[in-house]
What we know:
- Helices cover 19% and strands 0% of the residues.
- The radius of gyration is 17 Å and the shape is elongated.
- With 59 residues, the chain is mainly alpha-helical.
Amino acid sequence: MPSPLSLTFYGGAGKSDLKYAVRxxxxxxxIPIHTQNPEEFKKIHxxxxxxxxxxxxxx
Length: 59
């Protein structure tokens, strides 16, 4: 009997996927979270708010 196979996948969209999603959704405001490079979003959207730790953002 063959041994069981274990696979692990880590999710995370690539740069081109994120760019596509932002253009397709076309949000009024873009607030990047859970990212190492939030400044990069300013290259693909005109209205990006980058929150500071602990900051409350009112929409």
